[in-house]
């Protein structure tokens, strides 16, 4: 079957709403490399969107999964519970930031984790309102869409959304939005739209993912914590994309000196198996009545076994440190290219959650065309990259943290070639 045939079959058989950014049909994958059916090799700087932080098919993860497959694959934890679910909850309760008693629930997707965090906050506070940020991404369910701060393509055509969701600008110095402006907008929101005593939760990503890899400034995080404490609001950190050593710490909130009440986790938690969860203050998690949380597949035992192996690998292979080393190398290489690629407006991001933002060479206008061209040029050089950003003018780099030095260096060379090639084309 050729790739072209597959592309035709795909578009005939699969919903148009499931967009794809490449026409590579994966045949096999190992650590940071993917091969297609024609034997073409690609370097994977997407990691399934920050999922295989421990690489494709890490031997420890595969071994743990195989061992679990030989025992049982599904009982539904709500019917016949199992030990590895309990042990993973205990482990996350210890590891997630916050020096207080914590509890966990496992679900299957990130959007579901977000939904459940908000359900808990509403049940615990008896309030309705939820505050989120422009540029945020929290999933594709109805509440996820309502919390997400980008219309196209996430909300287009889907009608009225969940009510009592409010939004404020997210600070981005590069685009002239300061922390002070964000806090002023929050103050105005409390005056014009919803009194703080009706707000159940404030939710944010410590580093906005789909929104463009903008880290939340520490002053914002501190102010939000103070506001949450003052008004009895639950602070939710959505660590779905930032979690599991990606930013140079196990959780991005460890970069701040304040802690959230609830943390949502997914993506990197189980090395490619669908598993998500909410971890946080025991009294908030426990506000939901028995039966109010969970789901048929939530905390699938095979995914849980994979997650235990992922946490072991992160610790044993010191992947947080590795994220910092590789991220610094990548940022350094991008910064040295700034003189020859004037479209580079910013290089940023903690650990190996790195992004480069492109403007027009002669102005501060976002340059999504240049960004798309770089992604495509890199793809022709067999390097898989992802874009992001509200203006579509950011390339985000999410390679597995286990990537070998030689493969990483090869990818940086291809990236450099792509950037120089597209910049030269634009200069003509
Ligand atoms: C920060 C964040 N929250 C929530 C989600 C939704 O996760 P899922 O796609 O597993 O539903 C994502 C996915 O990209 C995300 O990055």
UniProtKB/TrEMBL annotation:
Keyword Nucleotide-binding: no
Matches recorded under Gene3D superfamilies: Aspartate Aminotransferase, domain 1, Type I PLP-dependent aspartate aminotransferase-like (Major domain)
Entry keyword Transmembrane helix: no
The enzyme's E.C. designation: 2.6.1.19
Pfam family, one: Aminotran_3
SUPFAM superfamilies according to UniProt: PLP-dependent transferases
GO biological process: gamma-aminobutyric acid metabolic process
InterPro entries: 4NH2But_aminotransferase_bac, Aminotrans_3, Aminotrans_3_PPA_site, Class-III_PLP-dep_AT, PyrdxlP-dep_Trfase, PyrdxlP-dep_Trfase_major, PyrdxlP-dep_Trfase_small
Reactions it catalyzes: 4-aminobutanoate + 2-oxoglutarate = succinate semialdehyde + L-glutamate
Keyword annotations: Aminotransferase, Pyridoxal phosphate, Transferase
Cofactor dependency: pyridoxal 5'-phosphate
MF terms in GO: 4-aminobutyrate:2-oxoglutarate transaminase activity; identical protein binding; pyridoxal phosphate binding
Homology family: Belongs to the class-III pyridoxal-phosphate-dependent aminotransferase family.
Protein known as: 4-aminobutyrate aminotransferase
Source species of the chain: Xenorhabdus szentirmaii DSM 16338
The gene coding this protein: puuE
